[in-house]
Amino acid sequence: MNGTLLLRLAIAFILLTHSIYGMFDNGINDFGNLYLNQIGFAPFGVVIAWLIKLSHVVAAVLLIVNKYIKLAGFVTIFVLIMGIILVHFKEGWFVVGGGRNGMEYNFLLIVVLLTVMYPNGFRKNIV
Fold it and tell me: Is Transmembrane helix one of the keywords UniProt gives this record (predicted)?
């Protein structure tokens, strides 16, 4: 175990709950059909939506077992950045309070993922 265990478990929980819920309430298909297809990803919107959610499930498992952390992090960060660009940026910063559906939550997840991916910072350790 390392010092990132709690962060890895928290991110895994968030990714799993967000993904699995959408698998059972038709949210993934709706996101693909009613959003992605409408903004130019047709006819691949549903496939892209499912790939996003499946990547979250895989990333969550990898974070839990502490394997391929950087790969899981890079893929998830890419998805989160695209979410900011396509969905959240136009709504502003705040998720609630000062606005609605903003980008602050994605920003926090990105920073936490970077912390898990690089627990000793970005510089090489000097011995």
Answer: yes
Cα–Cα distances in angstroms (integers) from residue 70 to residues 31, 59, 61, 76, in the given order: 27, 10, 13, 10
Where exactly are the structural domains of the chain? 5-117
What pLDDT digit, counting tens, does each position of 50-60 carry?
999 999 999 99
Query: Higher-confidence residue: 41 or 124?
Result: 41
Question: Is the distance from CB of 92 to CB of 99 less than 8 angstroms?
Answer: yes
Give the pLDDT of residue 2.
76
115 contact partners, CB below 8 Å, separation of at least 6:
4, 7
Greater pLDDT, 40 or 122: 40
Q: Which residue has the tokens 């993904």?
A: 19
Report the range of poorest mean pLDDT among 19-28, 77-86, 91-100.
91-100
Residues 99, 89 contacting (CB under 8 angstroms): no
110-119 core/surface letters (b: 16 or more CB in 10 A; e: else): bebbeebbee
